[in-house]
Design goal:
Blueprint: H1 7-12, E1 15-17, E2 20-21, H2 40-43, E3 51-57, H3 88-92, E4 103-106, H4 112-120, H5 129-132, H6 151-154, H7 161-172, E5 185-189, E6 195-200
Parallel strand pairs: 4-5
Antiparallel strand pairs: 1-2, 3-6, 5-6
Organism: Nocardia vermiculata
GO molecular function, one term: acyltransferase activity
Pfam families: Thiolase_C_1
Length: about 200
């Protein structure tokens, strides 16, 4: 999608699964991306500025985990999934929390994922994300520029690679008219709880 979608145009789109309409689902698309991963020392010898994966967190998923709800709808009936109640990725990266993040790149296969990520990673309290993100807060120039290249919903669904490439561009100052001013820390995150913290080489 390269043109803005008005609220009126959105409401004209058919429901796929109520309350989600066609634009709430990432487009099927072909694409590719590549990130070269090496040591910071080796990266410093290359032509382009190094971007550092400061830390990451992942989790084992199982039958309790579902993208549209907390594990087991909040009820733990199995023992094969451990929900991360806190987000160690921030402390491991030397950050105090979500407030330190300059830009968020999130896995947005479906539009509600934005709400789930904002709440899961502490950008907002539980149940407050929809109100919080109003009035341009997640737009370029807002408090938390999010999916600045369009994300899966507007750019292409290539399983998060586009987000990581955009994080790299932002931290190198190579994002053109999408550039976040003073961008030093970018978080990639999913509603499941996986996350990477990218930083400039300091």
């Amino acid at each position: 999608m390269t043109t803005p979608l008005s609220a009126e145009d959105y409401r004209r789109q058919p429901y796929i699964v109520e309350p989600l309409r066609r634009p709430d689902f990432a487009l099927l698309s072909d694409g590719g991306g590549c990130l070269l991963v090496t040591t910071v020392e080796r990266a410093r010898d290359l032509r382009r500025p190094a971007v550092v994966v400061a830390r990451m967190q992942g989790l084992h998923t199982g039958r309790d985990e579902f993208i549209f709800a907390p594990p087991g709808l909040g009820v733990f009936s199995q023992n094969d999934t451990r929900r991360i109640e806190h987000n160690p990725v921030y402390a491991m990266a030397g950050l105090t929390g979500a407030d330190d993040v300059d830009s968020l790149q999130l896995y947005d296969a479906f539009s509600p994922n934005l709400v789930f990520v904002l709440e899961r990673f502490g950008f907002t309290a539980e149940g407050e994300a929809l109100d919080w993100l109003q009035n341009g807060r997640i737009g370029l120039g807002g408090e938390l520029p999010t999916n600045t290249a369009g994300g899966l919903l507007s750019e292409a669904h290539i399983c998060g690679w586009g987000h990581m490439i955009e994080a790299t561009r932002q931290l190198r100052g190579q994002a053109g008219d999408r550039q976040v001013d003073g961008c030093e820390i970018v978080q990639w995150a999913t509603p499941f709880g996986d996350s990477l913290i990218f930083t400039k080489d300091r």
